[in-house]
Amino acid sequence: MSLFGFKKKQTPPQNxxxxxxxxxxxxxxxxxxxxxxxxxxxxxxxCAACHTLMEHTEAAARALGLSVKLEAxxxxxxxxxxxxxxxxxxxxxxxxxxxxxxxxxEEAAKLLEPLEQGKA
Length: 120
What we know:
Layout: E1 39-43, H1 48-64, E2 69-73, H2 76-81, E3 89-92, E4 95-99, H3 105-117
Parallel strand pairs: 1-2
Antiparallel strand pairs: 1-3, 3-4
Helix pairs in contact: 1-3
């Protein structure tokens, strides 16, 4: 029972791969990564800086022609497992490569280049 007889509206959870929560146009959403694609994670609380890092990383991967599995991790217990003390952080193939800073698209591309060359 809720206050004053008003019930909370229940909305079904949205399962989208996009960080915008499904509000962007379908043409801007990335296609799902193929099986075995390198995993790139953005660790953070879901703030504006985290979303910006996610967008820059996705744009850098697209510019390099990489097919990566991009994930947003907002669970602080999971973030703590990486030893990250400040967010946003970028994890490539389970290695923390950046923490506490929003990378530009160019900086993210430099960190993703080893994936392009198959070294990671």
